[in-house]
């Protein structure tokens, strides 16, 4: 009976194995997430103000209220483009890279 108790206590005393095989993919995923987070914040806001000031009010001579509306449309389109790019990159991030032709 002591042999069974000792074997079970030895397995409990051993530290769990450390799995470091996926650290590279975790860092890559976090870098991708950080990049698209920054892009999601800066691109729509930047395009909103740039298109309002330079395109709609500057080049097209629209009124201020009209330029707000069209600049908001540009910003919403930018959000959709960033989201679509994020989904595309996240979908293909874990896919194995094929180097040759597969028959």
From TrEMBL:
Pfam families noted in UniProt: VMA21 (PF09446)
Topology term for the membrane: Multi-pass membrane protein
Localization: Endoplasmic reticulum membrane; Endoplasmic reticulum-Golgi intermediate compartment membrane; Cytoplasmic vesicle, COPII-coated vesicle membrane
GO cellular component, one term: ER to Golgi transport vesicle membrane
The keyword Membrane is annotated on this UniProt entry: yes
Presence of keyword Mitochondrion: no
Gene Ontology biological process terms from the UniProt entry: vacuolar proton-transporting V-type ATPase complex assembly
Transmembrane segments: 33-56, 68-91
Keyword annotations from UniProtKB, A to Z: Cytoplasmic vesicle, Endoplasmic reticulum, Membrane, Transmembrane, Transmembrane helix
Xref: InterPro entries: Vma21
Classification via PANTHER family: VACUOLAR ATPASE ASSEMBLY INTEGRAL MEMBRANE PROTEIN VMA21 (PTHR31792:SF3)
Function: Required for the assembly of the V0 complex of the vacuolar ATPase (V-ATPase) in the endoplasmic reticulum.
HAMAP family the record matches: VMA21
Family of this protein: Belongs to the VMA21 family.
UniProt protein name: Vacuolar ATPase assembly factor VMA21
């Amino acid at each position: 009976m002591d042999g069974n108790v000792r074997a079970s206590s030895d397995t409990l005393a051993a530290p769990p194995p450390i799995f470091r095989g996926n650290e590279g993919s975790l860092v890559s995923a976090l870098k991708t997430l950080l990049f698209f987070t920054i892009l999601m914040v800066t691109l729509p806001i930047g395009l909103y103000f740039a298109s309002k000031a330079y395109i709609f009010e500057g080049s097209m001579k629209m009124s201020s209220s009209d330029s707000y509306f069209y600049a908001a449309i540009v910003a919403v389109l930018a959000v959709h483009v960033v989201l679509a790019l994020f989904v595309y990159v996240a979908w293909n991030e874990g896919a194995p890279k094929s180097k040759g032709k597969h028959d």
